[in-house]
Amino acid sequence: MDFSPTPSHDAGNPARAVRDEDAFDVAAVSAWLREHAAEGFRDTVAGDPEVRQFPGGASNLTYLLRYPDRDLILRRPPVGRKAAGAHDMGREHRIQTALAPVFALVPRMVGFCDDGSVLGSEFYVMEKLEGTIVRQDFPPSIDLSEDQASQLCRNVVDVLISLHQVDTTRPDIAAFGKGEGYVARQVDGWSKRFRAARTDGVGDYERVMAWLDEHQPADVATRVIHNDFRLDNLVLDPHDPLRVIGMLDWEMATLGDPLMDLGGAMAYWIEPDDDEFSQLFRRQPTTAPGMWSRAQVVAHYCTRMGFEMTPERWRFYDVFGMFRLAVIAQQIYYRYVNGQTTNEAFAVFGDAVTHLEKRCEAVIS
Fold first, then answer.
1. Which of 100, 144, 242, 256, CA to CA, is 20 to 30 A from 208?
2. Does the CA dihedral 104-105-109-110 come out positive or negative?
């Protein structure tokens, strides 16, 4: 499911006119940028930009600021009820700023604004990476052989491995999260979020939450984790689509257990023989010939990272990843049901929550 927009050259999600409910004072933002933009971007923001919005995002809102000489990206929170601790623009900005010296795939930051009088909320602006983002299917410009698709999967998983190998002893990175005890905090935290956002017509997930609580393992390590790792949060080189040149959407990045990050990523990874409902919600070309199965991804990752893994041990991370995805979907569906967003694409998220409960139950059983 597409829970947050990813800005770049994106044939599957082109920027469009700004939705009325998400409009803002362009002149005020433009004036702020002229005064506060980082060195190297001052000449870019001399005038007022044309503003477009990337559709499909249900988490933070993402806009294209189109200037004559360069395009920039603006990120802000959604309107309406927000989960506690979510949509922290300052944190998202700080994380990317801290990672930039040691992880080359983060975009450059242009500026962060915590003055609510400018836009009505915090926001930050970053460079627009020039590349390709793949969504449900590969665009016509990317025609991969099975061997090339396999190599792309290897390169993508290696990017996640590279992130999980970042030195967490650097003071600015050590401040990302609480570290040890991450698994327990996640099981407890996502369970509370689901109960707080539950609406009529969806299951209660009580058996799933009880099973996760009972079967949670100890943390295997404390690493920098992205927490929303998907193909459509990666930017591919426009001249070499097998090469990743950027990673986007750092809203939920923190320090934590890397296997939990992998489990979350695999919840989005649909295979050709998955059920029909899962196929309808596929948002990555993971069913294309040559693309790896979830088991192949897990095996390659664990071998490279030195983690011993068995199918039985993986069950916890599998169930947790699907449960976490269900909670994210439910939080969005809550906003839709309560009229906090008018995006009709979210009307079916309740069905997705129900379906994910069945998938969790099947793995548990």
1. 256
2. positive
